Amino acid sequence: MSDIADVDRANGAELTATDGLHYRSQPLAALLDVFALWGSEGFIGSLSRRAGVDLDTTSVIAITTLARNGAMRPSVLATHLRVGPSNVSKLSANLIERGLVEKTVDTADARASLLQLSARGHGLIEGLVGVGDQMMTEILARWTSQDQAEFARLLTLFEGDALRFAATVTAS
């Protein structure tokens, strides 16, 4: 049992339902609700359209992955996207055809190729980042500047602790 769940239970917290799952930790349930919404095809599509981007959800996630992580082999991108090699082959061909992604030779192994964002792909990402920034401005619009600063501080702290926890889980 996690420390958060123990604290919530000790404080008399009710179970929180999230899509039929029942968590004692309200923060976990809230995060999962936000993750599910923000990862949904409809939400990603709506934000992409706000940015003037006409791509399917998987393509948006692919170019975002390349922007965050840099050039990578198609097999690594497939792992990030949780799709098979043939799907990434079709996806990357489409993104290359649109001028958003480039295929280069892997300098570590000339037999392998890397996918990376093109200049046009970087421009598209800048539009998506702008829409993401605007989204957060709208979400936090009713919050005081002090609450926004505290949220940013706590979320940054949470991110560090979550990454450390993830490292222990994946290491075992």
From TrEMBL:
PROSITE patterns per the UniProt record, alphabetical: HTH_MARR_2
Alphabetical list of InterPro entries matching this protein: HTH_MarR-typ (IPR000835), MarR/SlyA-like (IPR039422), WH-like_DNA-bd_sf (IPR036388), WH_DNA-bd_sf (IPR036390)
SMART domains: HTH_MARR (SM00347)
Domain (HTH marR-type): residue spans on this chain: 24-160
Residues annotated as signal peptide: none
Domain of life: Bacteria
Pfam families: MarR (PF01047)
Protein name: HTH marR-type domain-containing protein
Organism of provenance: Leifsonia kafniensis
